[in-house]
Every structure is written in structure tokens, then in C-alpha cells.
């Protein structure tokens, strides 16, 4: 190609070895578009090597050949090319045959310029991150401070009430008269004790106390019985300390990415180790928690996650029906998973809870011919919108069979 | 005195009840269960196993399908306008190292229209966006940490054809790992449509 011949001539003319005379502004755009994903302008190793000083190490002819087709340079047996190929675990660099000589010169001009300016710029974002973190923690402290304040105010009010009651008791005991006169008038506690004895001896108060006690015990028993089989708040320790807060919250990985079954079938699926490896085959390899995944894969031993949301076998539930057809968000039933460090069952998953939602939730019938006749029939009978309960959401045999 | 005894017993009872109920439940404890034989499945169900299976390796109830098993939905698929538009055999046996074959051979069987493009967008957001970014510029939240995620619209990538994209989703390439197990062929082809839109620059 004419271009290629031109490039060798140009390189010969430029005495500094590198890509002298490139347009750095144009190079910046090209670098960010094509190179920045894998290369830094400093010496920092990203995916490929840092490019600071690359134009001094090599002449332009070598650089342009490498950029346009690095595999050809390696295949030709260039010692430096082979060395760097092996050093980077034989990862192939994408070829950029469309970049012209001017483009490549521009890119390296930008690298030379930015590589020296970069350390100062890198410090700024770090400082910005620190301040934003500080403000977040201050916000987190807000509600709990308010809570403490309310509690303190309550305690003060209750102390006041107690004081008033004591005053009333002492006044009353004075009014009752004779019995208290035996006691030393200054002995407040003795008078209080006497009057309390009087109250405790009163048959009406005694029976009221017994009844209150019995009712409280009864309520506690019924509450306890209703909680049998309800696992709300269950947050077991998992074999690997996986954080949904980090993956779903901070990194915004979609729930579907790992729970691939949620749109297709009954179960949302617990991801198998190969899905973890999509990222962790490359990043955070040294973490002891990630090492557990590697051990599991090497031994072909499944990771024994502890199931958190357990429905009894007598109830049928299908994820696809609710998520794909019903269009529910995962958070509707599972709570703020993206804020949970350890996954926890937030909803009660009782039948009352299911039924309650079926009664309240309107069916999305828009642009769906399946519902046309149902809507027509329903609107004849009722003025309310078509709810899940109206299309069989309360039928026993929908879930129990 | 009698009433004193009564209050003593009530106080004692109250203390016992409060002591028994006030403790917070251990997060590792699923709580009490009534009639476990109605709660736990009798048959073998995936994800509901609570005792080691004595027959299978590693005590697992779930087993891998026989090697070479083809998922029925990949075998007979229907898409396009109405159920009659049926294309069979969405089975691809192109090995991971033969991307040039995929580039030459594979054609997207799914017609490009607003529906399939919209579905492709939803699937892209689920499976790709956290690395490749909303516009395909490689600027997703995970991509920023993971590094090496290309810009679809850059010169080296904007002309890659549909077979290439399909192959990369299925088998991975360079730093990207294979996603064939998560995304079935039909979904992959829909994603291909959307990626090709992003290649033109969003």
C-alpha cells in the first residue's frame, strides 16, 4: 500500500524515533475511542501495557505495523513482539487496519503529552470520591439520631407522668387518713407501700390484673402460633460471603444476569459457578471468597448455597408467571435486595400475603387480545378495574393441587 | 397473705414469658415448622433438596444432562409474524476457536423489526449493559472496573458482522467469557440486532 511506504519514509525523517508531528487533539479522540479500554497513557498496566514511552522505545514503522496487525508482527518472529505477547498471557490485541499514519501519529502524540500530565489529574477524582463518601455516611447517621431524640423525649415525659402519679398517691393517702398516721409522716416510701398494699388488696383491681395477664399470654400464644412456618427475617450464613449490595447495588448488574430462570421457568435459578467466572475469571482473583469458587470448580464440587425463600411443597409458585407475564419487579416480593449485604427473606410468604396482593393488583390488559373478552365481561358486572382475583387469583387449585 | 402470692406468681410468669420471647431470632434459624412432611417435597425437586441423595455423585439430586443434549426450544423455535413463521434447528456446533467460520456462515434468522429490536434492547440491558454500557461505548459500571471493554462504534468494531457478534456472545473472546449458558440462541440473535444498531452509533 502507498500508505505503508509513506509511513516508513516519514519515520526516517523524524529523528526522535517516535511519531513526531502528530495532532494530539485528534489523537485524544481516537485514543479514547479505540485504545483507552485496554491501555493507559501512563506506565500503569490495564489489560495491555501502559503506553508511556512507547514511542521512544520503538520507531514509527514498528508501531504502525503493530497497531494495524499485531499478530502479523508476532508471526514474523519480532523478538520484542513475541516477548510482550507471552508476557500478557497471549492475549491478542485488536487490529486497527483502518487507522492512517496521521491517526497513529496523533495517538502517540497524545500519549506523550497526556502521559506526563496524567499523575496530577489522577489525584483529583480520588479526592472527589472521598468527599462524596463522607456526605453519604453523614446522611446515614441522620435517621438514627432522630430516633434517639424521640426516645429520650419519651423517657422524660414518662418520668414526669410518674412524678405526677406519685404526688396523687401521696395526696390520696393523706386524705384516707387514719392508717397513715401510725407511720412516720416523713417516711414517704412507707406511706407509698401502704397505699399500694391497699390497692393490691382491692378485689376489682386483682381480677383486672389477672384478666390483663391472661389476655396478654393468650395474644402472645396466638401470635407465636401464627409464626410457625413463617420464615420472615431468615438470613442464613452462606458458604461464600456474596454481597448483593455490591453486585446488584453498586455495579448495577441486572438480577436476570445471574438468576437466568426468572423469566423462563418456575425457579429463578441459583447461578452456577461458570456465571461467577464471567467476571471473576479475571478480576479479584486473590480474594479468599473467590478462591472458594475456584476450589469448587477444580474439585467439580457444587457450592452448597443455603436456600432462603422456602415455600411449602403444598403451594405452587412460578417465577415466570409473575415476572414475565405479570411484569412484577423482583423487589416487590424480595425487598431491597440491592441493599442487602446478606440476603434476607423480607416478605412473610404466607398465603394471606399472596391473597392480599392478588386482591389489590390490577391486571395489565393493555394491548393483549387474550384479555379483551374478560375485560368486556368484567366491566359489565363491576366498575372496578380487572384485578388478579377476578381472573382466578383466589382459586384454591391455582396454587394447591 | 394471699394476694401477695398471686402477684408473686404473676410477676414470675411475666418474667419467664418476657425472657422466652424477647430474644431476637438467630438469622440462621428458619424458625419452627408445622408438619414438615407437607412442606418438603416427596419427589425429587431441584432447589428443594434437604438431605444428601445416596445414589448420585456428591449427594446431588440434580444431574447434568447427557453430553450433546439439545434443549427442545432450540430445536423448534417460532418467531416473526405469527406462529406460522417457524424456523427449525437453531443448533450451532461451530467450535469456539472457529470465529471466521461463524462470520462466513451464520445469518440472523430473526427478522429485524421494531418488536425484535425492542426485545433485543431489553435483553441487552439484562445481560450486556453492566459491562458494555447503555450505548455500547464500553462504559458500564462493571466495565470500568473490569477494563478492556471495547466501544462498538469504534473503527475496529463497527463493521463486525452478525455471525461474529453471535459467536462472541456464545463463546466469548479475549477478556469476555462465554455467555452461551445464560442466553439461548433466539435471545442471542435478538441481542445481535440491538448490538448492530449500537455499532452505528447511538
UniProtKB/TrEMBL annotation, chain B:
Keywords: Heme, Iron, Metal-binding
Domain of life: Bacteria
Domain Cytochrome c, chain residue ranges per copy: 115-199
Keyword Metal-binding: yes
Record-linked SUPFAM superfamilies: Cytochrome c
InterPro entries: Cyt_c-like_dom, Cyt_c-like_dom_sf
PROSITE patterns xrefs: CYTC, PROKAR_LIPOPROTEIN
Metal-binding keyword on record: yes
GO MF annotations, alphabetized: electron transfer activity; heme binding; metal ion binding
PANTHER family: LIPOPROTEIN-RELATED, QUINOL:CYTOCHROME C OXIDOREDUCTASE MEMBRANE PROTEIN
Protein name in the entry: Cytochrome c
Annotated organism of origin: Dyadobacter flavalbus
Amino acid at each position: 500500500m502507498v500508505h505503508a511506504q509513506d509511513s516508513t519514509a516519514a519515520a526516517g525523517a523524524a529523528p526522535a524515533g517516535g511519531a513526531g508531528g502528530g495532532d494530539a487533539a485528534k489523537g485524544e479522540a481516537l485514543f479514547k475511542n479505540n485504545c483507552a479500554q485496554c491501555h493507559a497513557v501512563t506506565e500503569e498496566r490495564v489489560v495491555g501495557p501502559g503506553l508511556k514511552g512507547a514511542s521512544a522505545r520503538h520507531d514509527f514503522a514498528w508501531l504502525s505495523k503493530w497497531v494495524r496487525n499485531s499478530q502479523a508482527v508476532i508471526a514474523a518472529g519480532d523478538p520484542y513482539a513475541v516477548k510482550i505477547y507471552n508476557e500478557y498471557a497471549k492475549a491478542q490485541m485488536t487490529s486497527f487496519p483502518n487507522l492512517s499514519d496521521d491517526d497513529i501519529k496523533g495517538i502517540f502524540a497524545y500519549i506523550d503529552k497526556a502521559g506526563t500530565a496524567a499523575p496530577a489529574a489522577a489525584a483529583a477524582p480520588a479526592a472527589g470520591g472521598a468527599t462524596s463518601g463522607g456526605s453519604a455516611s453523614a446522611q446515614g447517621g441522620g435517621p438514627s439520631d432522630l430516633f434517639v431524640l424521640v426516645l429520650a423525649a419519651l423517657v422524660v415525659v414518662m418520668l414526669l407522668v410518674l412524678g405526677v402519679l406519685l404526688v396523687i398517691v401521696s395526696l390520696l393517702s393523706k386524705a384516707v387518713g387514719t392508717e397513715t398516721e401510725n407511720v412516720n409522716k416523713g417516711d414517704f416510701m412507707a406511706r407509698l407501700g401502704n397505699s399500694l398494699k391497699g390497692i393490691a388488696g382491692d378485689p376489682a383491681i386483682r381480677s383486672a390484673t389477672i384478666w390483663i395477664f391472661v389476655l396478654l399470654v393468650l395474644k402472645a400464644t396466638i401470635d407465636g402460633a401464627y409464626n410457625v412456618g413463617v420464615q420472615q427475617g431468615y438470613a442464613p450464613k452462606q458458604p461464600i460471603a456474596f454481597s448483593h449490595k455490591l453486585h446488584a447495588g453498586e455495579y448495577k448488574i441486572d438480577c436476570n444476569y445471574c438468576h437466568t430462570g426468572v423469566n423462563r421457568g418456575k425457579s429463578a435459578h441459583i447461578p452456577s459457578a461458570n456465571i461467577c467466572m464471567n467476571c471473576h475469571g479475571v478480576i479479584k482473583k486473590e480474594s479468599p471468597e473467590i478462591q472458594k469458587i475456584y476450589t469448587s470448580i477444580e474439585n467439580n464440587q457444587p457450592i452448597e448455597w443455603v436456600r432462603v425463600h422456602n415455600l411449602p411443597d403444598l403451594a405452587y409458585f412460578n417465577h415466570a408467571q409473575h415476572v414475565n407475564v405479570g411484569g412484577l419487579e423482583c423487589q416487590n416480593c424480595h425487598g431491597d435486595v440491592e441493599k442487602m449485604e446478606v440476603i434476607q427473606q423480607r416478605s412473610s410468604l404466607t398465603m394471606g400475603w399472596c391473597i392480599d396482593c392478588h386482591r389489590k393488583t390490577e391486571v395489565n390488559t393493555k394491548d393483549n387480545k387474550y384479555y379483551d373478552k374478560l375485560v368486556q365481561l368484567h366491566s359489565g358486572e363491576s366498575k372496578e378495574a380487572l384485578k388478579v382475583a377476578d381472573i382466578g387469583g383466589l382459586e384454591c387449585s391455582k396454587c394447591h393441587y | 397473705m394471699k394476694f401477695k402470692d398471686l402477684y408473686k406468681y404473676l410477676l414470675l410468669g411475666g418474667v419467664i414469658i418476657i425472657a422466652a420471647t424477647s430474644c431476637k431470632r438467630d438469622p440462621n434459624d428458619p424458625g419452627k415448622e408445622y408438619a414438615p412432611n407437607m412442606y418438603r417435597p416427596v419427589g425429587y425437586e431441584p432447589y428443594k433438596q434437604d438431605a444428601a441423595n445416596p445414589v448420585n455423585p456428591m449427594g446431588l439430586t440434580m444431574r447434568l444432562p447427557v453430553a450433546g443434549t439439545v434443549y427442545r426450544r432450540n430445536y423448534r423455535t417460532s418467531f416473526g409474524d405469527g406462529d406460522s413463521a417457524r424456523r427449525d434447528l437453531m443448533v450451532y456446533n461451530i467450535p469456539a476457536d472457529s470465529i471466521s467460520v461463524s462470520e462466513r456462515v451464520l445469518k440472523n434468522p430473526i427478522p429485524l423489526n421494531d418488536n425484535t429490536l425492542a426485545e433485543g434492547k431489553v435483553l441487552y440491558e439484562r445481560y450486556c449493559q453492566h459491562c458494555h454500557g447503555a450505548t455500547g461505548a464500553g462504559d458500564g459500571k462493571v466495565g470500568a472496573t473490569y477494563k478492556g471493554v471495547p466501544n462498538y462504534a469504534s473503527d475496529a468494531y463497527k463493521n463486525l458482522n452478525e455471525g461474529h457478534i453471535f459467536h462472541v456472545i456464545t463463546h466469548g473472546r479475549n477478556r469476555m467469557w462465554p455467555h452461551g449458558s445464560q442466553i439461548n440462541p433466539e435471545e442471542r440473535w435478538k441481542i445481535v440486532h440491538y448490538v448492530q444498531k449500537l455499532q452505528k452509533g447511538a
